[in-house]
Amino acid sequence: MYLFRALAVSLMALAPMSGMAQGFQVGFGQLQQDTGLPVEVTAESLSVNQSDGSAVFEGKVDVSQGEMRMTADKVNVHYNQETKAIARLVAEGNVLLVQGPDAAEANEATYSIDDGTVVMTGNVTVVQDTTTITADKMHLNLTANTAQMTGNVKTVLKSQ
């Protein structure tokens, strides 16, 4: 009886958050991501544009950097013209980001390597252990292992 009452109180406390929440802070990943590590990309095809310093990987794109892995249908790689290093990755279509035990999927994601942030948009779903969170947008800080969910945030808590 006590367990049932505790669960009911917990669910009532969270009920307003599921439909009306506009922002929700969560942890993401277990380890701090070292954004200075090499970025490895595999795909079915690659197109390079020397004039604007970009490259487009298409078809089963798999990006890895340390413990982080991202897959997508297409990834645009933008280089810093001065340093020739990768500045950002823009992933489109069936984006999946995995870091440690946590996973997030969305329609699009932009990974800014210099500041270690990922912004995921469009049908964002985060799965962490027994919790699922959905939102319109997620701002992820890879070095702090935190994420801010915004826009139509909904969470489903499952008992173990």
Residue stretches low in confidence (pLDDT < 50, at least 5 long) are: 1-21
Please state roughly what percent of the residues sit in beta strands, choosing from under 5%, 5-15%, 15-25%, 25-35%, 35-45% or over 45%.
over 45%
Distance between the first and last residues' Cα: 18 Å
CATH superfamily: Lipopolysaccharide (LPS) transport protein A like domain
Task: Give a quick account of the main beta sheet: strands, pairing sense, barrel closure.
Answer: 11 strands, antiparallel
In short:
By secondary structure, this protein is mainly beta. The chain is built from one helix and eleven strands; from the N terminus they run H-E-E-E-E-E-E-E-E-E-E-E.
Characterization of the model:
The protein is mostly beta strands and 160 residues long. It has one domain: lipopolysaccharide transport protein A fold (Sandwich), CATH 2.60.450. The protein has one helix spanning 2-20; strands spanning 23-27, 40-42, 45-49, 54-65, 68-79, 86-99, 102-112, 117-128, 131-141, 146-150, 154-157. Strands 1, 2, 3, 4, 5, 6, 7, 8, 9, 10 and 11 form an eleven-stranded antiparallel β-sheet that branches. A hairpin with a 4-residue loop joins strand 3 and strand 4. The chain is globular and about 50 Å long.
